[in-house]
Every structure is written in C-alpha cells, then in structure tokens.
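Let us work through a complete example step by step.
Step 1: write down the sequence.
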Amino acid sequence: MKHIINLYENINDTARNNSDCPHVVLPEEIFFIISIIGVLENLMVLLAVIKNKNLQSPMYFFICSLAISDMLGSLYKILENILIMFRNMGYLKPRGNFETTADDIIDSLFILSLLGSIFSLSMIAADRYLTIFHALQYHSIVTMRRVIVVLMVTWMGCMGSAITMVIFSHHIPTVITFTSLFPLMLVFILCLYVHMFLLARSHARKILTLPRANMKGAITLTILLGVFIFCWAPFVLHVLLMTFCPNNPYCACYMSLFQVNGMLIMCNAVIDPFIYAFRSPELRDAFKKMIFCSRYQ
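Step 2: predict the structure and record it as tokens.
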C-alpha cells in the first residue's frame, strides 16, 4: 500500500528541510535476517500444533492464527527485499505493470498481517474470558467446529479488507479505517478486562478454584498484547502523522524514525514464539522434540 507502507519515501521535502532530526537508516540485511527468523519461528509454532494432538485445542488454534499473522508480516519484508533486489539488478522495469502488481500483492500481505493480529488477539481475549467466567459451559460453547468456522470467516474478512485497503489506499477514509482498527481492538479487550475485573471482585472465591492454566492464559494474553502495542503503535502513529501533518517539522522529526518503527514490527514476529514457549510447557516440549527430531507421542 504505497500511501501507507512506503511512508518514509513520501515525506514532504519541505518538512525534511525544516526538521533538524537526522533520518535513521538501517541496513536492509538486518530486516531480511530478522524476517527470516520470524518466518521460521512461527512456522515451528504451526508445525508443533499440527503434529502434536495434545496442542490441538481452541486456544492453540487461535495462537496459530496469530502466528500466521506474524509470519505474513515477516514474509512481506522478505518479498519486498527480493523485489527491490530484482529491480536494482535490472530484471524489473521500474514502476512497470509487473512491479506495480507485485507491490500491491506484497502490501496486501502487510495489511493482512496487521488485521490478522488484531482479530487473533481479540479472539484469544474472548477465549480467555470464556474459560475464566464460563468454565463449566466452555466446551459446549467453544467447540472445534465453531472455532474453525470463526477462523475461516475472520480470515476471509481480513483478506477482503486488505485487498480493499490496497485498492483505495490513497483515500483519507481508508487511512482512518486502517488506523481506527488498532484502538478499537484495544477498547474491546479493555472492556473484557474491566468486566473480568468487576466479576473477579464479586466471584473472588470462584476464581481461586479455577484451573491455574486458565489464569495463566489470561496473563499470556496480557504479555502478547503489551508486545503488540509496543511494536505496532509507533507505526500506526506514523501513518496518522504522515496523513494529517506531513509538512510539520515536528511530525517530520518523528517520521525520520520510520525504519526503526518498521524494525519493531519485524521484531514482534520474532518475540511472540518465545512468549508461547516461555508460557506454555506443552508447546515448549513440542519445540524441543522438533529441534532434536524426537518422535511425538
């Protein structure tokens, strides 16, 4: 999405001249290496859940959805670097039809990554809410069939939205929609947290009797959400500043950190699998078996 993804290249020259902040440039090799690591790590998460029947539960299916989102974000940067390499080598005509089409496809992966992360975290939050406060009815409410249907509908909606945002990327309403999804997710999860806190106060004894894994899952969600906000919020702010105050020197000063903000997004895909492994002994054991080529039970 040229208006949203390639923001660094589109900063107004006047704003650059008025800003005394030097533009931070990071080597593309670092982006490429981190992206490769992100793809491999999240691919391990998917393989671990697919091969280990003990991990094939709704919670881990939602984690797989988040892992796919992270993997798409890393894959976006890999494909972008390959496209740039072929263009620099003269195999692609600059701004030609093929490059324009490839740009749109690659940009849609980036938007799909953000949308997938937002909805995956929201689904994990809803799942944790149900496990804590509707533990007795949980297995009748959250069946594997319903989980698969929800995931399919969610990802189909995300793909349609990503394509639409790429097509209408130069329109202000698209930018507003793109950036509004981030705070809307936070509001939704915050509402769940507030409701959980209020219910926990009135059902304190009941909460203490719940399986420890249910509360541990809620803590894991909190960590994942915190990392997501830390890694994505600077980029979302960049989009807003680029759209509404591109000529302001203070905005341009912040936008000089565009590549740093992009690096944070790539790091999110690398950090999440470590959180899964650190918080889940089952997934950690599955990783060890995969690494040391042990058989699954």
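Step 3: interpret the result. The chain has twelve helices and no strands.
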